Amino acid sequence: MSEDLEPGMAQRRELLRRAAWLLGGAISAPAALAFLQGCSRGEAPKVKRHAPMVLNAEEMTAVATMADIMIPKTDTAGALDADVPQFIDDALAALYTKADQDRFKAGIAEFGAPTLDSVKQAIEAALAADHDPKPFILVMRELTLLGYFSSRVGITDNMEYVPVPTAFHGCVPLSQMKKHVYWE
């Protein structure tokens, strides 16, 4: 095709083609390098824990104790392995109003030293009665469950986790599942 063109036009097209190659290489080389570095098998970045935003140290200890009572570590990870107390503090800071944060903190103070029996009795009593607003122990239970089952540890240890799903099989007998998830 370049034989049909004038000599000046052929040189111009060749010059533009080479400039495009050079410019494309200059732009895509850093992008390709960044992409390849992102795929390296180096160490995962360390996540720095930050100081509590809503709860103080004593309240964080009480929340950690209650979360550990609700989801203890057994042959699977527990609430503390999933950083549930930090999740609760983050959720309080990001999602709850100042009045709700104060109500949650007051609930911690009223609850006292949590034990298995006191947590169990408080949950049963709160579920048996109608309350508006929701009692502290039920908010604590909801945040604990949400924090645990939305964490990587909670999903991979306790649920049938398929990282790359293929076909959906809606009616699979529990006997064929690797992990049994029972919802009550």
Helical region count? 7
Helices and strands, in order, run as: HHHHHHH
**Total discrete domains:** 2
**Structure summary, number of beta strands:** 0
Distance between the termini: 75 Å
**Inertia-based shape:** elongated
The chain-level structural class is: mainly alpha
Low-confidence stretches: 44-48
Percent helix, as a range, is 55-70%
- On the 0-100 scale, what is the average pLDDT? 79
How large is the radius of gyration?
28 Å
Q: Mind describing the biggest β-sheet?
A: none
User: Into which percentage range does the β-strand content fall?
Assistant: under 5%
Fold and architecture overview:
The chain is mainly alpha-helical. Helix content is 58%, strand content 0%. It has seven helices and no strands. The chain has helices spanning 7-38, 57-70, 84-95, 98-111, 116-128, 136-149, 152-158. It is elongated, with a radius of gyration of 28 Å. 16% of the residues are buried.
